[in-house]
Amino acid sequence: MAPERVDRGRLRADLRALIAECAPDLDGDLADHSPLITSGVIESTALLQMALWVEEQIGGKVDITAFDLVAQWDSIAAILDFVERHAPAAVGPGARAR
């Protein structure tokens, strides 16, 4: 039996909720490829909250100084891709990363 994949739909909903909490003045629906960092939607404090969220999803620490945040986290799609690349293979719907 193959390991289950990360539930991208659930992660997307959770990430959108976090962004809405971090940027309450955001107007309208944010598309998956809308810029977050370069547009100023997400600022330093929100980036730290997103880093904590990513750590929870992948079950490990993320050194946000070790990579280019704009290149890898500037959109919802990019953050989800990052989580999928770093998440344990056995994480699936309803499961949590360890």
Per-chain topology:
Layout: H1 8-22, H2 44-58, H3 69-73, H4 76-86
Detailed description of the structure:
It is a single chain. By secondary structure, the protein is mainly α. The chain has one domain (about 10-25, about 35-85): Non-ribosomal Peptide Synthetase Peptidyl Carrier Protein, Chain A. The chain has 4 helices and no strands. It has helices at about 10-20, 45-60, 70-75, 75-85. α1 packs across α4 (about 75-85). The longest helix has 15 residues, at about 10-20. Residues about 90-98 have low confidence and may be disordered.
Q: In short, what is this structure?
A:
Helices cover 47% and strands 0% of the residues. It is mainly α and 98 residues long.
C-alpha end-to-end distance: 20 Å
Percentage of residues in DSSP E strands? under 5%
Derived from helix and strand composition plus strand pairing, the structural class reads mainly alpha
Say which CATH homologous superfamily is assigned: ACP-like
The averaged pLDDT comes out at 85
The CATH topology name reads: Non-ribosomal Peptide Synthetase Peptidyl Carrier Protein, Chain A
Provide the succession of SSEs: HHHH
CATH architecture: Orthogonal Bundle
Oligomeric state: single chain
- Quickly count the helices: 4
Query: Helix fraction?
Result: 40-55%
Task: Name the poorly predicted regions.
Answer: 90-98
For the record, the count of structural domains works out to: 1
Radius of gyration: 13 Å
